[in-house]
Amino acid sequence: MFLHKFFPEHKKHHLTTNVTENIRKTMQDIKEQILQCRKLVKGEWLYRE
Asked: Is 26:18 a contact under the CB 8 Å cutoff?
């Protein structure tokens, strides 16, 4: 279900370099957002004062 929602292009048999780079960037963005959420849960402030 995750693949279908976030990466519908995964169904293709041949992915281009551009598509694979977009997938990598999206996954990196998701990772960064998860790390930010974890900091918030711990009570850390995310922004410069």
From this structure: no
